[in-house]
Design brief:
single chain; 80 residues; two-stranded parallel ribbon
Length: 80
């Protein structure tokens, strides 16, 4: 079996394979709030068998965004 498809452990967390999806900005959030589009996109990648799926860049302050459609965590409703 190729190492690509074998499990790997980092700091006690085991990943089922080494197929990892790096963060990609999708510019689909509205006022920093992620939506059903994000759930479908990230969910489809996870269901597809990748060992790790990382979310896109997330701004901690609205001034720090590089587009108005970036995801955010500067308000409480961003995390619910």
């Amino acid at each position: 079996m190729s190492l690509l498809f074998s499990p790997i452990t980092f700091r006690g967390v085991e990943f089922k394979n080494r197929l990892w999806i790096s963060p990609m900005c999708q510019y689909s959030a509205v006022d920093g709030v992620v939506n059903a589009w994000h759930q479908q996109w990230l969910g489809s990648l996870a269901i597809g068998g990748h060992g790790l799926v990382m979310t896109e860049a997330t701004a901690v302050n609205p001034v720090g965004r590089h587009s108005l459609e970036d995801a955010g965590i500067w308000r409480d409703d961003h995390t619910t």
